[in-house]
Structure formats: structure tokens, C-alpha cells
Amino acid sequence: MSTLHPSQGTKHETGIVADPAIPVITITREFDAPPAAVFRAHVDPELFARWCGPRTIDMRIDHWDARTGGAWRYTAIREGEEIARFFGSFHEVREPDRIVQTFTYEGGGDGVSLETLRLEELPGGRTRLTGVSVVDTLELRDLIMASGMEVGVVEGYERLDELLGE
């Protein structure tokens, strides 16, 4: 399973690939900002809440401790109504190029994802982001892929482009 999603209003595409043999999802995306700025947008709770998720959703940060051994929790809100909650732990936060964390959809069953985010510096002050998510079964991986998660990823990264351009 592999999809390439063009972004509206930006020149970058978001790659979302599910390996057919193992329960892994890989996301790739480039940004016109240096790794330090992209990293900061992932660890600063006020910045993270501004770009994470689809345009129709606001994120409320309930808890945020972006350091190695820290934890996080946030709530997705649409038109004033809480629609989903997520939580996890920061396993490793290494500025400016690596974040390893767990991700759990609260109320979504027993599934947990281990996510590794790598930021690579590109010529011209740009960044390549690679995110690898590992879950424990192919069924959970396929459920995530079928959930519409690509809308949140693609629109979230479009919003991140806008934030980085300010």
C-alpha cells in the first residue's frame, strides 16, 4: 500500500507507505525550513497544537513534557466537541533531528504505535522528515491506513508549512 499525496497551496507531496509484509507505516515529507525550526514545531506545545491534524479540528494540549522520558496527551476538538484523545510517551527527544515516542488513540482498543521521527538537513535550509510507525499487527496497521489518517497527516503538514513560513 503506497500513496503520494500532493499538498494544496504548497509544492511538497506527502508520501505514506504501508509495507505489505510488516506492520509499518512510513511517512516522508520535505519542508522549506531548517531542521531546528521543524523540530521546534514538534516539541513546543503551542506550535504543535497550531498545525497537528486536519484543518477542521483544533488540538487542545492536556499534558506536554517533550523531553526524553516525558509524556504527552492531547484532545481533538471539532466545533466545540471533543472527538478523540491521544496520549503517549517521549522515549527520546534529541534536538534537532530525532524524536522517538509512543502513540495511542484513547478508546481505540489495545493498539500502540512506536514512532521514530528523523529530520535531515537538505541544501538551501530545507528539511526532509521521515516518520516510521510500527504497530504490533498487520490488522492494526491496515485499520490505521483505512481510518482516513492521511487527511490529518497531509493537512497537518500543510498547516506546518504555513506556520514555518510566518
TrEMBL record:
User: InterPro entries under this entry?
Assistant: ASHA1/2-like_C (IPR013538), START-like_dom_sf (IPR023393)
The Activator of Hsp90 ATPase homologue 1/2-like C-terminal domain, residue ranges: 32-165
Q: Where are the transmembrane segments?
A: none
* Family per similarity comment: Belongs to the AHA1 family.
Identification of the protein by name: Polyketide cyclase
Organism this protein belongs to: Nocardioides cavernaquae
